[in-house]
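## tool: complex_structure
## caller: assistant
## args:
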Amino acid sequence: VPALPVPEREVTVSTFTSLLVWLPIGAALVVWALPLSRYATGALAVLVSLVEVGIWIEQATRFDFDRHGLQFEQHHSWISDLGVSYHLGEYGFSLWLVGLTVVAMAACIGYGFWVGRDRARAYFGLMLFLTGATVGVFVAQDLLLFYAFFEGMLIPLYVLVGVWGGPGRLGATVKFLIYTMAGSLLMLAALIVYGLKVGTFDLVDGPTSPSRWIFLGFMLAFVIKAPLFPFHGWLPDAYREAPPEVTAVLSGVIAKAGTYGMLRIAIAKFPEPTSYYRTLMLTLAALALVYGSLLAFRSPTLRGVVAYSSLAQSGLIALGLFSGTNLGYDGAVLQMVAHGLVSTALFLIAGTVERRTTTDQFSLLGGMAKGRPALATLLMTVGIISLAVPGSASFAGEFLILAGAFQRHWWWAAIGAGAIVLAAMYMLRAISAVLHEARGSTVTDAALDLRPGELALIVPLVAALLFLSAWPAGVSHHAFAGDNPTQVVKGQFR
Amino acid sequence: VTIHTPHVDWFAISTILALLGASFVALLAAVLVPRAIRRPFAAVVSLLGFAGGVVTSIWLYVDSATPHAAISGTFERDRWTALAQLVICGIGFVTTLVGWEHIASGSDDHIAEFFSLLTASAAGMAFFVGSANLMVMFLSLEWFSIALYVMCAIDYDIEGSLEAGLKYLIIGSFGSAALLFGCALVYGSTNRIDFTGIAAAVGSHGLTGDALLVLGLAMIIAGLGFQSSSAPFHMWTPDVYEGAPTTVTAFMSAATKVAAFALAFRLLRTAFPQEEHLWSWAFAGIAVASLAIGNFAALVQRNVKRMLAYSSISHAGFILIGLSAGSTLGGRALMYYLIVYSAMAFGSFAVLAARERELGAPVTLDNLAGFGWERPFLGVAMWFFLFGFAGLPVGGGFVAKFYVLSAAYDHGWTWLVIVGVIATLVSLYYYLAVVRAMYMRPSEELRVAAVGGGAPAAEPFLHVAVAAALVVSVGSLFAVGPLIDLAKHATSALPF
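## result:
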């Protein structure tokens, strides 16, 4: 049968990339400026976040996954005399991360609407601003622009945690900000040195650099953001004190900016330093994986388990990236998306549990499965996916990463496989402590099952996860052009 | 005997004339205009003066593509002068708006004198930035300083206002004396007082490294350090900024810095290009000292005005990084930084003025609690200024830092980039402390009550002024290209 001629679709939707960034930021300004009611503000924010998802779907259907190089590109001069430009565009893997961002943000904004956050205009404005800045990180193709968005994410997060967070929020925000800014300011120094040395700040045109110092400057920002052991000091406080939907964003999406940066900038632009520091980075990744899993197993709270498991997962993703193999890269991208969805869903579920019982302490929880089938089913499903049961999206991701790490050396894979056993232990412990065992003292009959509004937020995330579980290649084979990641990375994605 | 009067290019000094005219009319108003309408009358005169200054300096900018000395070589008519004058007039305009509602709000006794002094000091600054010889430089420095001394003390109902004026007078005089002494030494060494003549004399007589000249240069740098409140010449800054009426603080923190740094760059590039290796190191040292002292001292302040005073010292440090690079890139960075910084500094002090009036007490981190929610516009504006100060990408403050650090790297000083980055990190702590106080601590908890308990006074002019500062500080992020082009053309007027 002769293949049908594929109509050559003219890609005219480049402006969509800018729109994805500026629509939510513009909406944030509208929300701040107009004296809308709480309900109208929330509704507008949810609407905008759904439009974002729509735009992304439109982009994804038009994306040519076989084509090399940047797509949906936009290029304008910004600071011309230093070679800084407003340059946006997407690659396969960045498309998936943008998708993760808009979907997770839509769920989290919806959650904020559902629970009726007070000071609605400020809150939803900040959430929208955060959406725009985070999408910006994944599509920016200029170092300074990337940096601006990377920092831009911090500002709303700082206020979101500081205003709507728990009792220890002030300390948590200071720690969070100082940690992450320490990393990103050194990145600023590194990017100035890199950009002025090579004469351009453009990520596509910029050549590779052999400088180990610059590489370390960038990496420090990324390992703090991801985070990896031992740079995770901010994580427990921030994840505990933030409102649940903000924690979901932090671990599901923001953390991925760190691992994305490793792939897009550190590994692609600094091949020589990458291989020089490979063992160090793999060691840090493995440490994060094992240490995070152990902490998760010891954590007395539901959020703590998910928080430390995020640390472990960041380690796993970094393990895949720094293995420098085809399988490792594919697996890392898949795992970024899968874990982003898993951890968003888990933190939102933790939020619903907290709303019903006022706590996420295991000692006060238990027996929630009885009479609450929807909650039990969702927590169980996400938990099972999260512990990488064969057939799940996480399993596919972890398997690819471990296979890639194995190609580097068998012991990395051995460490990773050991940590997966730990993952099963901590996740099953958490599930049973919340759903099963004796009924906890805070679990009353008044604690209802998930309401339709909550289901509407969490079920789509779970559905996306199930879809990825059925077809992990949807992401892993569509992340790098020609499905040959090492060559693509070596060619700096051009 | 015929006396040859020099040809005067009146257009070259039109900005100064506009401001002086306004000053004169405002001073007359103090005696002639009835008290009931004295405040609006004087304020409008001042606004007109500054608007005129804005127009003439724009015109001068457009019309001075080829730099040349005017009035027997005492005044430099070029784009560097015009751009600095434009910024100064802009600051003066918004200062007038705030002053209208805030200066001596209890009585109208000295209101016209205040506006007269304000326009006069701006005129002095406009003259200062264009001065082309040591004599004019010193005279115009005294001109605007004396006006500022009085402005600091004008609201003698406020506790500390007189003290601030006196402190500023004494320490400022010390700075002026250092500058004057330096000028004398340079003259003694080179026998010239015009900037270009000094450079020429140094070149033709092989005076590079001459002890007298170097000592003179050092004294001049110290004198300018006093004016720009750079460490270690900053001791007066926190006290004066704290004690002066907040409107005056806002004006000083923005305009004085613009004048001092714009002139410093011109002086060093024009008169002392052969000594660049000396002054670039000296300024790098002063920059590091300012960054260290400004930032670390700000960390422990509870009084927000004092904190911002220390923050202005640390920003002097950043500006000095651009200055010490001494290159065209450094000049661009300097001008861009000054534009953005003066908008943020002015705006943040104006917001404090509103809060101060509402409380009837000095603003501290404690009584700022809940401010962001009570006064949403001023709160958000303050939020933008503070994040901008910290170099986060919500405004031009981010690009300004990027520029000065780039200039430092371009000069080959990677270490200075690292110092700047670390200083920024430290500064985050105290800027965020203000945001934290405004938004994250409920005011009910701290029982802060406004004076009289009623709604805060409507301050439309202050809001307009803050909005203007906000537009400049945020807009400069998006309009980097045009602003840098302005600065680039201004810088090209100087010899490199």
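## assistant note: The longest strand of chain B covers residues 68-70. Chain B touches chain A at residues 332, 373, 380, 387, 392-394, 398-399, 401-403, 405-406, 409-410, 414, 417-418, 421-422, 424-425, 428-429, 432, 435-436, 439-441, 480-481, 484, 488 (CB under 8 Å). Handing back to user.
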